[in-house]
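Thread: Phosphatidylinositol-3-phosphatase SAC1, structure

OP (GT): Posting the sequence first so everyone is looking at the same thing. Length is 579 residues per the record. Can we get the structure tokens written out before standup tomorrow? I want them in the notebook alongside the other entries.
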Amino acid sequence: MFYSDVYDDFNLFITPDKFYICPKLSSKYLVVDRVSESLSLQSNVNDIPVATSSREFCGLLGSVRLLAGQYLIIATKRTYVGSIAGHAVWCLVSSELIPYNRSTLHLNAEQLDDNNSYLSMIKNVLDTPYLYFSYTYDLTHTMQRLHLMEPDFLNRSLFERADHRFVWNSNLIKQIFRPEIHNFCLPLLHGFMAINDFSINGYNFTWTVISRRSINRPGTRLFRRGLDNVGNVANFVETEQIVECQGDRASFVQIRGSIPLYWSQYPDLRYKPPPHLVDVAADEQQSACARHLDSLSVYYGRQVLLDLVDQRGSEGKLQKAYADTVQALGFPFVRYEPFDFHSECRHMRWDRLSILLDRISLEQDDMGFFLLLRDGSIPLLQDGVFRTNCVDCLDRTNVVQSMIARRCLGNILHKLSIIKSEESIEEFPSLERVFKEVWADNADLISLQYSGTGALKTDFTRTGKRTHVGLMRDGLNSLTRYYKNNFSDGFRQDAIDLFHGIAEIKSPLRIERGWKYITFPSVLLVAIAMFVACAILPSEYSTDSLLFILFWGVMVTATLTTILNHGPEFVDQPRLTVL
């Protein structure tokens, strides 16, 4: 076992006063005092008393403080995903929160109810698909970053050397971390991962796609938009595809993230609430955007900003503000490329996406990709990155990213001589099928994590064409998004903020709703019921029955209009943070 590796399998012995966390392959064990919450590293197993209970687990994820006190968080089940550079990668299947306190008698009934809500929040985040980890490999860094680091840096522990933008349980680990117990702390990556093996033209190779979700400005689709004061944007995801063949390794990185301006789009019961630019001076928008682009340049170098939003309507205001801001900044390492996805591809003309690919093909060739040969030499580095966005950075974004990735994968396979110069990915059915499925699955998971539903437009990613069945599926997903974004995302936003230490616990957690919250929905239900009854029950219609239908129809319309006019009062709002 190397210094930086993390212990994989443990026995947990629980006594009334302490937790004894014992790695199966080490003589050292961690003792957690349940009263003082102190931690100590010990090596004499004979000092472990008889436990009141014990269990096996596969990873220490950290600790969190709720109303009832501190909770230890452990990974209890995992499933094997595959290997990267010879290192096993796992997916978290289940976890458990174990309280330090032996009882909750110090809480009153309301506090106990709130504590259960907080437990549900933490579990909600841990159960959101998917969380990945490796005991021996740093999943948070791209392959290029890993191989350009100094040897001393690579000798540090996985948590200390990680790119903390992508350590999903960073806040939990910080509650217990000490340098001497680094082997106990397991970093988690949130996003998507697929590892597939192929054999083509006599070459065996592994193709991997990793999407890393950032912990900076985390949240749900309509409650987290734009950027914050330090330049972090919502829904920032770094996606890397890796090819490994007989000791040679290549990788290509893309990123996505919300439009880097101050803007919002809070739910208000409308199907598609219009986005609003926050009312700040132009120089404030420019400064915030500059901080974001500057920070990206440190990690990725030059950037091509692919903006896929509509150039008319409410999205058009965002597009113009974004374009004007980038132009005003005049950064030499940034180029802005607008492409009105919906306008260009209307009437299901998705073949017109080739227009965008043609515009950026020379830059993609110039950026290249990272290549590490089996002899340890690095003949190629990726110089720059495509930063893609639409409004949600989900559906349109994933379609374009998958097409860029397809082109790069072809270039990599040609470079490694896996396929001949005149051959393309489409000529190999197994690779073509898996490529489409993986990128569609990536779209679904990234969308599920941000919006609560699978992605739209994945029929194009899976089949290469837009279908009527796909349109119907998109309609169902859109309705599900509408419900979740309006009536359940407040809880999800609180859960994410609590998990990352952005919000503090409080009690009472319940908020008092105004009289409209119960009255108007009740009146609406009665009005709808009466309207339907008056419309279908009479065997024949008279003037009176028609007047009743008209009356209840007006009541339905008036009540629904009133509810929509007071939409934010009926939305499930976050309770722990002020928007």
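GT: Both are above now. Quick notes for whoever picks this up: The radius of gyration is 27 Å. The first strand starts at residue 10 and ends at 14.
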